[in-house]
Design a protein that fits this description.
Strands 1-2-3-4 form a 4-stranded parallel β-sheet. A 4-stranded parallel β-sheet has the order 5-6-7-8. It has helices at 10-18, 34-43, 57-64, 73-77, 81-86, 90-106, 128-146, 162-175, 198-206, 221-229, 245-253, 262-267, 279-284, 303-313, 318-331, 336-353; strands spanning 21-27, 109-116, 149-157, 180-186, 212-215, 234-237, 257-260, 288-291. By secondary structure, it is an alpha/beta fold. Residues 1-5 have low confidence and may be disordered. α11 links the parallel β6 and β7. It is an enzyme of class 3 (hydrolase). One of its GO terms (biological process) is hypoxanthine salvage. One of its GO terms (molecular function) is adenosine deaminase activity.
């Protein structure tokens, strides 16, 4: 976590700690523990490029965490190289998923959707279904041990052959309702607009798979429009919506949720300063917005940290934060009974802590 402590009251910090949290946008490979990555690399018997983590933690973090002054999304994405190398066995995939649930539970996340790109772990010794099944098993064991509800979102990668991403959608269909809850498209947005992979989302729609798509992170509001036309009910980041009234109306009218991640948005230069982040303005304009970590390790953050930033740097109040948790619960790719349980937790918390603000 970055060193500078955010200046806010201990009462607000305690409120944040106690808040039941809902996180919809969290990448598995970007949220692995440093020690786990080090252990995984040490276990690997075939390490073709000799990649190892330095024993010094600060030097290791420099390889895994994007700097605050990261130049671009492409530079940010380079921090995933080592973690992806680690996710090449069923055991590693399962453990990484389990640990992410445990870390989320430690800060009172009651519902978590973790996403990852299964095609990046497929090789002759590990098939697509085994890759997905390993992550699902890790998450389900985490639910059993820590009580965190959730699901797995399968990401297609923008730079990959569209045929591979169709296979990802087909795999999502096989696991839908069995741990997998949706599909996504991730990677370098500037060079690979979403329409390249329209057949992936056509397949997902045919199979009834919920869709979220990374869009509007690199300044293109048209990518948001295209993503919604392709079937997305949620948009990953969506920063570029702010400057386009037609996109704002489209998101508002169709109840499209924007999954925003303040620290990541700052690092990838989607915003130049957190005070410029559009989250507060979008909420005020009646849009559906939620707050997320994106990548706990790469961005050196947590849900509590992101909420602190939103309150301290963007001027959001407790009711704004609670509303975003409720929006996230509404938009979760979860069965109705699970969404209802989340709302019960949120309502009880509001009755205890927010009645004086209503």
């Amino acid at each position: 976590m970055y060193d500078k402590r955010i200046g806010m009251s201990e009462m607000d910090r305690e409120w944040i700690r106690a808040l039941p949290k809902v996180e919809l946008h969290c990448h598995l490979d970007g949220s692995m523990r440093l020690d786990t990555i080090r252990d995984f690399l040490a276990e690997m018997t075939m390490d073709t490029d000799g990649s190892k983590l330095p024993e010094n933690d600060d030097a290791a973090r420099a390889l895994l965490q994007a700097p605050a002054d990261c130049a671009s999304l492409d530079e940010y994405l380079k921090r995933f190289d080592l973690p992806v190398q680690c996710l090449q066995t069923a055991g590693h995939l399962k453990k990484a998923a389990y640990e992410l649930v445990r870390d989320a539970a430690a800060e009172n996340v009651v519902y978590l959707e973790m996403r990852f790109a299964p095609a990046l772990s497929v090789h002759p010794g590990l098939g697509m279904d085994e890759v997905i099944g390993s992550v699902v098993n890790g998450m389900q064991e985490g639910k059993r041990d820590f009580g965190v509800y959730g699901g797995v979102i399968l990401c297609g990668m923008r730079h990959m052959d569209p045929k591979i991403n169709i296979q990802v959608a087909e795999a999502a269909g096989r696991f839908l309702g069995k741990g997998v809850c949706g599909v996504d498209l991730a990677g370098g947005e500037a060079d690979f607009p979403p329409e390249i992979h329209r057949d992936m989302f056509k397949k997902a729609r045919e199979m009834g798979i919920p869709i979220t798509i990374h869009a509007g992170e690199c300044g293109s509001s048209e990518n948001i429009r295209t993503a919604i036309q392709l079937g997305a009910s949620r948009i990953g980041h969506g920063i570029a919506a702010k400057g386009d009234p037609s996109i704002l109306n489209m998101c508002r009218d169709q109840h499209v949720l924007l999954e925003m991640c303040p620290t990541s948005n700052l690092q990838t230069k989607a915003v130049n300063d957190l005070s410029d982040h559009p989250m507060k303005d979008l909420l005020a304009e009646g849009l559906y917005v939620c707050i997320n970590t994106d990548n706990r390790t790469v961005s050196a953050t947590s849900m509590s940290r992101e909420i602190e930033l939103a309150m301290e740097k963007m001027g959001l109040g407790r009711m704004d934060i609670w509303n975003m948790m409720a929006y996230a619960a509404d938009a979760a790719f979860a069965p109705e009974d699970i969404r209802r349980k989340i709302h019960v937790k949120l309502e009880k918390f509001k009755e205890k802590t927010l009645t004086s603000e209503m």
